[in-house]
TrEMBL record:
Its EC number is 5.3.1.35. It is an enzyme of class 5 (isomerase). It comes from the Bacteria. Belongs to the hyi family. SUPFAM superfamilies: Xylose isomerase-like. GO terms for molecular function: isomerase activity. It comes from Caballeronia udeis. The keyword Disulfide bond does not apply. This is Hydroxypyruvate isomerase.
Amino acid sequence: MPRFAANLTMMYTEHAFLDRFAAAAKDGFKAVEFLFPYDFAAADIKARLDEHGLTQALFNAPPGDWAAGERGIASLPGREDEFARALDKALDYTAVLGNKTLHVMAGLITPEQSREKHRAVYLKSLERAANAARAAGITIVIEPINTRDIPGFFLNRQDDAQAICEEIGAPNLKVQFDCYHCQIVEGDLAVKLRRDMRRPNAGIGHIQIAGVPERHEPDLGELNYPYLFDLIDSLGYEGWIGCEYRPKAATSDGLGWIKSYLQRA
């Protein structure tokens, strides 16, 4: 049965961040994820997780200057030392929060920049990340993101992401399969889930969902999520499914789609 994690960056924004943990637990969630924890002490977040019986499913490594528009630094030439420091910081947080999956964002590329050079840097960064995370039992995930939401993002397609993981060959490097991004870029989600779930030296390490195209609740839009949830179950996926969507109104009011799953859990 699917296990869902509330994304506290997008959901429950009617509450202050540290109060979102209680709101998610009250609605029946057993896990949470978010983009970045770094504005808060890890111990303060851990206290909220423990108080409300929540598991930390995922967060992202530091992405560079987010406020200035950066969306990751793993593929950026000349930022290798900064990436190494960012990775260390992220792993320090995982040691406290307890999540076993860490997302590393690739970053942006402009048309005049060399894709080959960015890819070479990206592979070295990911190899470094996988090696550093392995001893702690952490899986590094990379996510293809559509260029409508993030123009110029380096990684856009599932097959490209799987090829990168296979080329590096680290057992703890996998792909974050975001159904929203995949539907916008490629479609054919069911075929790709079947193709990639158990790929050798790659595979799917985390799944996220949202309605397409507005990125509201999963029951709004063009995707048949009950079918996809049954498929994901049948493929043996045991990880969390992150609810990375923007509620159309108050978060709790839009949870009709998930109530039956939470009650069964």
